[in-house]
Amino acid sequence: MTIEEGPALSEPAPGPASALDPQELCAQVDWLRAVSRSLVRDPWRAEDVAQETLLAALNAPPRSAGDVQHVRAWLGRVAFNLSRLGARRAARQQAREVRVARRESLPPVTEELELAGTARLVEEAIATLPGPYQSVVRLRYFEGHSTAAIAAHLGTSELAVRKRLWRARSRLRATLERGGRREPFWVTLLFLRGRELGAPGLTALAAGVAASVGGLAWWLGGAERPPAHLTEVARAGVLAPEGAAAGRVPASTPASADLPADPGTAEPRRELRPPVPERGPRNEIVAPQTVSSHGLVLDLEGRPRADLAIHRAGAPEELLATTDAHGRFTLARRGPLELLAVAGGWTTLVPGTVVRGSEEEPARIVVAPSADLALLVVDPRGEPVPGASVELRCEALAFTALDFAVRLPAPVLRTGASDAAGALELPELPRGRGLVLRVAAEGFEPLERATLELGAHAWLALQPERVPARLAGTVFHRDGRPAAGARVELAEASAVADARGRYHLPLRGVERGSGLTAVDPDQESAPLELERFGARLEDWRGTLEVEEQPDAPVEHALDLVLGAHLEHVAGELVGRTPEGWLVAAFAREAGAIGDVAAHETPAATTRSDASGAFALRLVPGAYDLYALAPAGACVVARAELVTGSAWRLVLPDELPLRPAQLQLTSDDGRALAHARATVHARLDGPEGRRRLAWRELESDVAGHLAFARDPALALEIRVAHPRAGGVVHWDGAAPAAVLARPAHLALRDVPPEYELAVVLDGGGQALVTHGPLGPLTSLAFHAGETPVVEVPPAARWVELRSAALGPVLVPLEASPGAELVVRP
Asked: Which of 4, 83, 634, 710 could connect to 629 by a Cys-Cys bridge, CB 3.0–4.6 Å?
């Protein structure tokens, strides 16, 4: 077995420059020409880009010239940069030619009349807009002010201004189309003759309206595409009128101008002072803002995806960026952001996240191919099944090809239900390995189908449900009374006991780890909780009483007895501010509530009301009472209170609270900005340590947690952050806490004899890992591989387990931030 570190899960480190073999470079010519044609639509310009790239490779060869993949990546980057440089040069050249060009002939009178009529229609359409939309349109496109200046003038946010502009353009397009003027015609006429009509704002507005529906439509004497410099400006989202680039103040507009108040608001007239950046040539693209975040879009096979639009979750109308040929994108915004990648035929499976203060970490977005699905659910006779629940589930198998760890908030990605005709439309349904469609309906067996097996139309026939075995019996209180209304749950089934305490529970989806619970709705008795009841059921089936009747399900008879009788305990907190305190009762003996971990978990918790009163239901016995202050981490306690009496706890007049501050950093010295931290009070009990949760906090941009605490109280702080996390035991002395970054582990090419793997620490104890779908105590193999999972830095061994062979131990050195691949 071998262990690889670093390169398997990240890009290879650059090496020294080496000479590039001309024969090897010639072998890449066809590939490079194909890449150039995808970057530049003009075939002659694409050939120039390819030749310039080859010359650059000969003059300054890339590092690791012997690696074909590295050479191709280097050539692709150079071709991309040269194509963009050529576009900028063409834009500047075209701008110069436009400035010095003069007309050789006058346009026909009929064309002038048609253009004037078009301009009149647009002016009338603008006049029909509501006041707020009309105001932003005129300020932006006719007076040339930037969105930031308009936002300052109207007293709103820049995002609100952009949304108004987008909605105004959509309304204008709809109004003009209703009037019989289709978009390609009037947009092109306004663009070509906007300046001659003395209305440069119409030119910019026309481009904006066209961009609002996905791009500019062109009709230029049969040409399929506009000039290069106009294409570049259109990609920027708005076409700059003559005399001003997009977002700049025109030369004729002063730095400050008195503008009328927004006609749709009651705001008084204010002075508009838009920022005046450095001026440049006309029709030149404005330089982008300083980039604050970046990211990468990959599909489920780990391949980068180009030309995907990046949007913020919940704001599909706001385009933030577009991926380049290598799937990369950059943002001029800081976190927190949840990002989605959108394109025809692709949908986001795992959103990317940008955390404030950690923008240097790339936001990785995972996408999957998608297509519409028309689903019809029927029974074996072909009759429709209405109300069938449909779920799109994701399995860990979907992420085995990725070389980085991902996390899904839930394995169910989408849900729906069939209508009265058994039909359901699922638009843009993701398709891929590990994506499964599950259909279930009452009275039928669930059906699962891989999405890769489904076409545009699917006809799924559900089979009638086989009569399951049942668990039946009576639920009793400890004193022998039937527990009417008790709720019994096991795996996927639940049942409610009748007036005599009788229950019938179907055995559906029971596994060895399934637990059985019985809860009294009146809270007279403690719940019954049987862990790993599924394993016990397999062992008990030979000894349980079995009732077999013709045409009836097999029943296993089992009576259940609830826990001890619960007593109602009333109490009060006495003090100056008794409201809102967290009150918790811990049993003096672990066996009092039937839980071996009772010394760590409170038997019952509640909060005090405005008068300080509280109520608890407890098993008869002795308890320690704790009250945790809402204003700070401070605990007031009283020991050995007995049920059956009134409980009273006196609060101090002045709480011993002091300001406290703790800085959270990762082991590489970087602050954990905006980390979630749950603060627990650590208490000493007769059976060991007790923990009582106080509050969840968030660190600032420098990683500091600030709150009030009792200096005599020991705290346990559980920290969660994308870069690092863990538990900090803090007594207030240390000013900072260092948390270890997780290591990343993937298992590859595992022989089929092995079924699963367990990660162990140096003492042989199993550790919890974090996979795509949540915490894992063991790693299952999918075709001999596992997804990349996060493992604690304490990991020292990987144990491969097999039913036919003995376990195999593989040593690990999971240092913080390490990326490991185990190949047996």
From this structure: 634
Closest to 325 measured CA to CA, from 509, 79, 632, 616? 79
Task: Give the 3-state secondary structure of residue 739.
Answer: strand
* Number of Cβ atoms within 10 Å of the Cβ of 250: 18
All residues at 6 or more sequence positions from 708 whose CB lies less than 8 Å from its CB, including other chains:
631, 632, 633, 634, 657, 658, 659, 660
For residue range 157-186, list pLDDT tens digits in order.
787 888 888 888 878 777 776 655 444 444
- Reading phi first (left if > 0) and then psi (alpha if -120 to 50, else beta), residue 593 is in alpha
Q: How far apart are CA 502 and CA 793, in angstroms?
A: 51
| DSSP code string of 752-785 | TT--EEEEEETTS-B--EEETTEEESSEE-BTTB
Nearest to 602 by CA among 578, 579, 619: 619
**360 contact partners, CB below 8 Å, separation of at least 6:** none
Q: For the chain, give the percent of residues with pLDDT over 70.
A: 76
- Is the distance from CB of 630 to CB of 645 less than 8 angstroms? no
Distance CA 259, CA 622 (A): 76
In whole angstroms, what separates CA 781 from the centre of its chain? Answer: 25
**For helices 29-39 and 68-100, angle between their N-to-C axes, nearest 10 degrees:** 40
pLDDT tens digits, 609-664: 999 999 999 988 899 999 999 999 999 999 989 998 889 999 999 999 999 999 99
Among residues 311, 337, 409, the alpha carbon closest in space to that of 674 is found at 337
The torsion defined by the Cα of 227, 228, 232 and 238, in degrees rounded to 10, comes to: -10
Q: What is the pLDDT of residues 267-317, one digit of tens each?
A: 333 334 434 344 333 333 333 444 578 899 999 999 999 999 999 988 888
CA atoms within 13 A on the CB side of 432: 27
Comparing C-alpha atoms, which of 761, 798, 800 is closest to residue 784? 800
Give the span between the Cα atoms of 798 and 810, in whole angstroms. 5
In this predicted structure, what is the pLDDT of residue 601?
Answer: 81
How far, in Å, CA of 50 to CA of 48, rounded? 5
Under 8 Å between Cβ of 665 and 741: no
Band the pLDDT of 606: cuts 50, 70, 90: very high
| Residues in a beta bridge with 626 | 584, 637
Which backbone phi and psi does 637 adopt, to 5 degrees? Answer: -130, 155
Mean pLDDT of the chain: 78
Rounded Cα–Cα distance for residues 681 and 584 (Å)? 12
Q: To which residue do tokens 């915004």 refer? A: 333
Phi and psi, residue 27, nearest 5°? -70, -20
